[in-house]
Design brief:
single chain, globular, Dna Ligase, domain 1, Arc Repressor Mutant, subunit A, 5 strands, 2 domains, alpha+beta, two-stranded antiparallel sheet, 5 helices
């Protein structure tokens, strides 16, 4: 199980990046994070990318590959899951994190049946959330 952020010894930059993502209403790109943290002394993208890399390693955030952005993990025990899924609204950018042990087991079984061992997978579902669909 991944330790909560409070239990980890995060650097100042990691803490600032994590807090920025945790308070964000939508996924943020590294450059959006950089822009928000300029007043905190961030000057280069590398500062943000290093912090993001460690936060992913600690299981505190996720990278959404299809939109090249990052979100804070919404499930405290997420680090115990080998599979994470995200529903991403293409209209309002809302992201819903979905953890489902049965789905993870089914995907692992499919992989095994095809001679493959899964270490980690991220599924991204793109579409419209309920709020946007009714408008």
């Amino acid at each position: 199980m991944t330790a909560p952020a409070e239990a980890l010894k995060l650097t100042k930059n990691q803490t600032l990046v994590y807090r920025t993502l945790k308070s964000a209403e939508e996924p943020l790109s590294a450059y959006s994070i950089l822009d928000q943290l300029r007043d905190e002394g961030f000057r280069a993208p590398l500062q943000v990318y290093r912090a993001l890399e460690k936060l992913i390693e600690f299981g505190l955030i996720h990278r959404l590959e299809s939109i090249n952005s990052f979100v804070a993990c919404r499930h405290p025990d997420c680090g115990t899951h080998e599979m994470a899924a995200f529903a991403i609204c293409e209209s309002c950018n809302r992201v819903i994190e979905i953890n489902d042990a049965a789905m993870a087991g089914h995907l692992a079984s499919l992989a095994r049946n095809n001679g493959f061992s899964v270490s980690h997978s991220t599924i991204e579902l793109r579409g419209l959330c309920d709020a946007c669909r009714v408008h």
